[in-house]
Amino acid sequence: MVSLEVPRSYDELLAALHKFIAFAFTFAALVWIWYLHYQFFRRYHLSDGPTIVLNAILLFVVLLYVYPLKFLSTYVVDAVLDPAAAASIQPWQSVDLLVIYDIGYVAVFTVFLLMHVYTYAKRRELSLSRLELFDTRYAIQNNIINLATGLASMPVAVMGGPSATAFAGILYALVLAPARTIHGFWSGKRRRPLERAQRAGS
């Protein structure tokens, strides 16, 4: 994904830097997914059949998702920093590109949602505490927000056509960041009493 060949000219150096920026965006997205995955298994220690199947599906989706993610990141970075070097795509292809990204994004968080819903269904068997139940519900709500954002972006791109693809992409920043921030702030206030109660009872 990143070439280790040393640039031979200044232009090649700039092109390489653009690729590194695009790679950084891709890497950040993958780290986010990895962290959610790590957090889930550190918290619940599930290893039954349904969890293994969902985990395998997640791995499969992520391995597919990385290609359109890298292409989209590279295209956006090049379009902003060096339009002449940006990949040549037809206007209608920009719609397809964003929809492919949306599908991958929705697929990833659909699996995460199913994993947490399944965990919540097994809450008695897992003997989850009130705080753990709250965190599980919080994760479910977060995944619904992520899903809703991806699902909202798709019709904007499809119905709006090439002229709306930029807005459909920016929708992630316009919707996801504020929604997650508000939800996190609201949930944090409700979580603190549960933390105090758990510490007092331990």
Salient structural properties:
mainly alpha; elongated; 202 residues
Q: Would you write up a description of this structure?
A:
By secondary structure, the protein is an all-alpha fold. The chain has one domain. Helix content is 85%, strand content 0%. The protein has six helices and no strands. Helix 1 packs parallel to helix 3 and helix 5 (130-160) runs antiparallel to helix 6 (165-201). The protein is elongated.
TL;DR?
With 202 residues, the chain is mainly alpha-helical. 85% of the residues lie in helices and 0% in strands.
Shape: elongated
Largest sheet, strands/sense/barrel: none
Low-confidence stretches: none
**Helical proportion, percent range:** over 70%
Number of domains: 1
Q: Give the radius of gyration.
A: 20 Å
Mean pLDDT: 87
Question: Which structural category do the helix and sheet elements fall into?
Answer: mainly alpha
Total beta-strand segments: 0
| First and last CA, distance | 48 Å
State the oligomer. Answer: single chain
Number of helices: 6
Q: SSE order in H/E notation?
A: HHHHHH
Strand content: under 5%
